Amino acid sequence: MYKGLENYSNIANVFTEAEICHIISRSDQGMTRAELSRFTGFSKSTISKHVDTLLASGYITEVYENKKTSYLTLNEDCGYVVAVDLGATSLKIAVCNIKGEPMLVDVAEDIVVNVPPTDILERVVKTANSMIEKLGLERDKIIGVGMGVPAPIEYSTGKPVCPPIMKMWDDFPVKEYLSQAFKTRAYVDNDVNIMALEERWKGDGRSDDNFLFIKLGTGIGCGIIINGNIYRGSNGCAGDVGHVSVEGFNHLCYCGNIGCLEKLAGGAAIAESARGMAQTGKSPYLSQLMNKGETITCRSVNDAINNLDEACIEYIRSVGRYIGEVVAKLVIFYNPTKVIFGGGITNFGDVLLTPVREVVFGRSTALATRNLQILKSRLGDNIGVVGAAILVREELFKPNEFSKVLEAMR
Amino acid sequence: MYKGLENYSNIANVFTEAEICHIISRSDQGMTRAELSRFTGFSKSTISKHVDTLLASGYITEVYENKKTSYLTLNEDCGYVVAVDLGATSLKIAVCNIKGEPMLVDVAEDIVVNVPPTDILERVVKTANSMIEKLGLERDKIIGVGMGVPAPIEYSTGKPVCPPIMKMWDDFPVKEYLSQAFKTRAYVDNDVNIMALEERWKGDGRSDDNFLFIKLGTGIGCGIIINGNIYRGSNGCAGDVGHVSVEGFNHLCYCGNIGCLEKLAGGAAIAESARGMAQTGKSPYLSQLMNKGETITCRSVNDAINNLDEACIEYIRSVGRYIGEVVAKLVIFYNPTKVIFGGGITNFGDVLLTPVREVVFGRSTALATRNLQILKSRLGDNIGVVGAAILVREELFKPNEFSKVLEAMR
């Protein structure tokens, strides 16, 4: 509750301004007043009144295409966001403008995540602070912090819940820590959810209300977009598809179960199989690499495929079929318009995705696949931090939250 | 767009009244003005003003518990709903009050659904009209029609999409037909979705925002409640779990695929297996029944279990394990708080549900099952028609729709 709540007409104004700002924030090139009027159903005069307030507040700005046409767009200098993407082995930290465009990015690839959380969070604060200084930004222009973490997250509190690969973070109040360190609002979510959100606003999901983003990397996870928003489930672990069982497969998984997809199609599993193919000589290309003393990794398998090593091509095709079996069920359950794949394993390209498509289109229902597209993500290098910045933008411009911002300015 | 949209403050009032009515409609015993104020964040005086308008309109009424306390509740006589539940072999038609309470119900168990849609819809109109007459209701008090259909439905148009067991209904405008026949708004949805909605407001899902309702009957389907509302997917077929493949099972299904759960655990599959157990003598109880000349059905299997026939108990346990395998994946994907089972097959009770629980709790992730409950639905005989009436109530009291009703009355 914030001051002024008793005064309904005032609230209505603030909510309308928040809503207008939210709509503008979601459009890349901006919107005209006429478009805003059509979009919201408010009259042009009502829109004009609120737009004037927002222009005065500095949250939006007007860009003239020509004498007649002008677009209202977010003022990218109205505030900045600290965006963090923690992966299983990497840490990206960025300072972004409110549009989610990174201004400085710091990437570390030597991360061990199962350490006390403060070890990593202190590093985040230190690095971000030096970036803020380097950019010469005023501290009170930092209007939010967003962070993606490779763990199930209780979203309201921003605490990891039983995180399998970072057990020392269990129940640690990451959101509260970041909020206090940067003296502003903070939001923490599962890393794959954040990538799905980025796909929603900057990627191939921008015209889709219901789609799935599946990350194939060290781990395998699925971000679920329903009615345009992230669906997290009741414990924050919806879409944990890496631990779905695969038919006829009995490997033990660290989660305490057997036959999990991740043990078959995750990065570690692929590298292990590759070492086996090198040792047995099943893959001549990998054997050759091994004999040269090289370490066999997923990248070696990709090289082998580019050199038309048949054993590796057939192996990755089989991995694709296993993934396809799980995705076929996901498609029946969610009936999405798209399934978008991201993560390092997608570098295998169509050698992986063709068998995925084969199984999904063969084994889902006809209706659920009628308009379905299965795609490889086209998001760029900064995937993850851009998503974390968008998470802040989405939360900030929600009418309830943004009303507080506008009220505080009055 | 409706008249008055240009006048923002008027709209705000109408929307507030719609919202209050929506909140009241969702509570069984009603709400006090103080509760409405806490619930909405509006001041008591604002609430009082809008409540007076609503009392005058006749949509709500005030019930005095004692001199000091009164509850605002829907006026059950403010309007009536025609509610229809079409099953694979049955047709229930009811006239309900706006609270979803049936006043008259007509049940036919001899239905063949794959006939021209007008054959059934004409029967619906005729039966409902004679009920309305019998009840002595004024025609203009019929404020909506709701219908559940055993098919995937495009919700916005109310048309079946590639319905597998009622192919003659494909693309038929059921919603438009009903709307014209009864001269009021009509809503058509998949029958299992409607049961899930009933579970949400009248059953064990009333305190759950994210849960699944699985109907085990002739067909097997899943209604998905996300954030308190039905999730339908992009083609209206989300949750079509009867056609998920089961490990190591190769029976042909009418959907064109093999190994579907429905061919293993649907009513027809169970009856067929039972006949096999009777013929081979594997189940002494069923053999005895067959030799007496009785037809072997699912009910026979239930009788056999009640007489401790071990073959039937073990068989239904195996059916439960197959269902459990599919539900384990659903639980990982959706992370619901509850999975509620309904439909005729649940009459097997714990003989069926114990192995379901065994597999789900054994084969989902620990976090997704932490607070999970697997239950048998406790909804009564009128399940389906009550849901259809609630569908109308939910749509009618959505601010956009109800604003039109209130505006028309002014």
Can you offer a commentary on this structure?
The structure is a homodimer of 410-residue chains. By secondary structure, chain A is α/β, with parallel strands linked by helices. Chain A is 43% helix and 18% strand. Chain A contains 14 helices and 14 strands. Chain A has helices spanning 8-26, 33-40, 44-57, 117-135, 174-182, 191-202, 262-265, 267-280, 284-291, 298-306, 310-334, 350-363, 385-396, 399-409; strands spanning 60-64, 70-74, 80-86, 91-97, 102-108, 142-149, 153-154, 159-160, 186-190, 211-216, 220-226, 229-230, 338-342, 373-376. In chain A, the strands form four sheets. Chain A has a five-stranded mixed β-sheet, sandwiched between helices. In chain A, strand 1 and strand 2 form a beta hairpin. The model of chain A is unreliable at 1-10 (pLDDT under 50). At the A-B interface, helix 1 and helix 11 of A face helix 1 and helix 11 of B.
Provide a short characterization of the protein structure:
Two copies of one chain form a homodimer. Chain A is an alpha/beta fold.
List the topology elements.
The structure is a homodimer of 410-residue chains.
Chain A: H1 8-26, H2 33-40, H3 44-57, E1 60-64, E2 70-74, E3 80-86, E4 91-97, E5 102-108, H4 117-135, E6 142-149, E7 153-154, E8 159-160, H5 174-182, E9 186-190, H6 191-202, E10 211-216, E11 220-226, E12 229-230, H7 262-265, H8 267-280, H9 284-291, H10 298-306, H11 310-334, E13 338-342, H12 350-363, E14 373-376, H13 385-396, H14 399-409
Helix pairs in contact in A: 1-3, 1-14, 2-3, 6-13, 8-9, 11-12
